[in-house]
Amino acid sequence: MYVAVDDTDSSTWMCTTFLATELIRTLDDLDLIGFPRLVRLNPAVPWKTRGNGALCIRVGKGCGDRQYIGSIAGRKIFCYSDLESEPDIDDVFSRCIDLVKEWSQTDHADPGLVVCRDDVDASLYDKAVHRIISKEEALSYLEGKDHRVFQINKGRGVIGASASISWKPGDYTYEVLAYRERSKWGTPRHVNAEDVRQLDELFPSTFNNYDEGLSKPAIVPNTSCPILYGVRGDSFEDLLKAREFIRSEEVERWLIYLSNQGTDDHIIEDYHSLEPNSSYAVEGTVASIPVTVAGGHVILTIDAGEKLECAAYEPSKGFRNVIRALRPGDLVKVFGELREEPRTLNIEKLQVVSLSSFKIKVANPKCSVCGRIMKSVGAGQGYRCRDCGTKSNDVLMAEEPRTISIGWYEPPVCSRRHLSKPLKRCNFED
Ligand code: ATP
């Protein structure tokens, strides 16, 4: 039996993952089948609170392999590889409704709860991670299935909840989330920054841990939500060890989730046209020298069938220098979300496929009569020899030494998207 929730929190209170832990705590007579799932959906959805994450657990009588994956309210949490039997759907549904009501921020959110006995077609996830879809379309995927839906306000969370059930992991990662004691919610967090800095070296299968440029852990949220930290990685065994390694304030509960974070699942590679509110990998030729605009953002214009403006924003810090180093004629592949207004591709990652030979002026022209170096007459008016008055426009050009190489570039850890695949996870030999 799948139980999925979304859109229960606000930017200032709670977190839908915490509700997932409460569902597990309350449904303690049932086993977890597989890992709880933290499924990120289209990051370009305008009405998302933070990272457009939906949560799905599967419960029933478990059998097969048993894995230790967390601790909630002093109880060890295990999940099972296989389902032996399904629980009563109405019993599960009514118990979950009470929790959704209890933990939802109903004046700011549009909570949705979906309980479904059957699998949901994976094409729903495919749409929800790439495009904007309606609630009606999401609900149409549940037709004919043994399911129950509960919603509050507009109930838009039903979209994410249904989509999280339909996720059939191709590429996947894990995240261990550690939660704070209730009395600490909203107060400054205490997590040993040096321990976090060492995670990449000690547990190489983890990623997005520490931002060297900002000298700051990236695993600790800034909001007042119940999460203390979250470590992401490819191996749940390493996440178990990493959690034990990190010294911090008291961890009230923790849980390992299976996730599509860090997979690039949101990127559309094959497209007919570039529609806003989706994310793409766009190959194109740099059309002009990148410019830095007010606020320190860098705008790159590429020719990709249409002239497309791509932006590296100020928070991406040193990554902007990579963009600034590009020159007309360079061939690049830009990954990012296409905004509606202004129509700009927000750069999440970039491949420099080939470099052009770009010429720059190295000296004023030499006088062809007397050999003297000419002087500029004025902006756009050419050059003149001071001795004999000869005029010329033939400045000396030479190939600009390039400060960028062919290869892949990504923003620093703190300005990465949840879904963006870090270069650390990319197998370039393939
Ligand atoms: P948090 O990260 O704190 O859990 P959030 O960023 O997930 O919050 P929500 O408050 O859950 O934000 O809002 C996202 C809303 O967008 C939900 O109602 C979800 O159902 C809906 N949604 C998700 N994907 C899509 C999509 N592809 N098209 C339309 N709506 C979507």
Automatic annotation (TrEMBL):
InterPro entries with a match to the protein in the record: TiaS-like_TCKD, TiaS_FLD, tRNA_Ile2__agm2C_synt, Zn_ribbon_TiaS
Domain spans labelled TiaS C-terminal zinc ribbon: 364-404
EC main group: ligase
Residue intervals of the TiaS-like TCKD domain: 2-153
Alphabetical UniProt keywords: ATP-binding, Cytoplasm, Ligase, Nucleotide-binding, tRNA processing
Domain TiaS FLD: 155-266
Cellular compartment(s): Cytoplasm
Gene3D superfamilies: 2.40.50.1010, 3.30.70.2200, 3.90.600.20
Reaction catalyzed: cytidine(34) in tRNA(Ile2) + agmatine + ATP + H2O = 2-agmatinylcytidine(34) in tRNA(Ile2) + AMP + 2 phosphate + 2 H(+)
Gene Ontology CC terms: cytoplasm
EC id: 6.3.4.22
Biological process terms in GO annotation: tRNA wobble cytosine modification
Lineage top rank: taxon: Archaea
Main localization of the protein described in the UniProt heading: cytoplasm
One Gene Ontology molecular-function label: ATP binding
Family: Belongs to the TiaS family.
Described function: ATP-dependent agmatine transferase that catalyzes the formation of 2-agmatinylcytidine (agm2C) at the wobble position (C34) of tRNA(Ile2), converting the codon specificity from AUG to AUA.
HAMAP family: tRNA_Ile2_agm2C_synt
Record-given protein name: tRNA(Ile2) 2-agmatinylcytidine synthetase TiaS
